[in-house]
What we know:
A: 112 residues, mainly beta, 6-stranded mixed β-sheet, 4-stranded antiparallel β-sheet, 12 strands, globular, B: mainly beta, 7-stranded mixed β-sheet, 0% helix
Amino acid sequence: GNSVTQMEGPVTLSEEAFLTINCTYTATGYPSLxxxxxxxxxxxxxxxxxxxxxxxxxxxxxxxxxxxxxTSFHLEKGSVQVSDSAVYFCALSPYGGFKTIFxxxxxxxxxx
Amino acid sequence: xxxxxxxxxxxxxxxxxxxILRCVPISxxxxxxxxxxxxxxxxxxxxxxxxxxxxxxxxxxxDQFSVERPDGSNFTLKIRSTKLEDSAxxxxxxxxxxxxxxxxxxxxxxxxxxx
Lengths: 112, 115
């Protein structure tokens, strides 16, 4: 079946540190891959997406590359800010399907 | 910027009662979804809806659940007889296209507490 596994949190970093949140997936066919972010008290917002192998999604300094050979979609940012503190969800949408399947979420705390 | 809205933000109900959670999707979107997130757990897909019918549903979405688009703007999730384990955050989402890569826009959620 389809599933998403992401690293457990919380992740605590100092401002300007490098961020990596690991995400791997299991899917049949060619899913689309997403990272969503949830700020405190808010809904889920799409951060970035990639729809085929080797695509790189990027937004607000975050990026992730669709790696089919390793079934991974790791989220990276070169220099985090306090305002990046949130919960990050890796997700996939199966090819031809309507639903989005989410990972468990990784909480990020960034200290000033 | 258009956004998905949900009401109420928090609903408290007694076990066995019916609840209706309301959502107003983005106006030109055609596909609508409900997800739930039990505290500390994953966001789980419940159901997708298009052209006035369910297009896909999960095993969670049993006979206690129903969805409806009663007018041109609202999209509702009804839980007929709530159970303690229905306590969760419920997110509505909408998208312009249904399958694969199209972005789903999420509302802020309704926190349902069943006592």
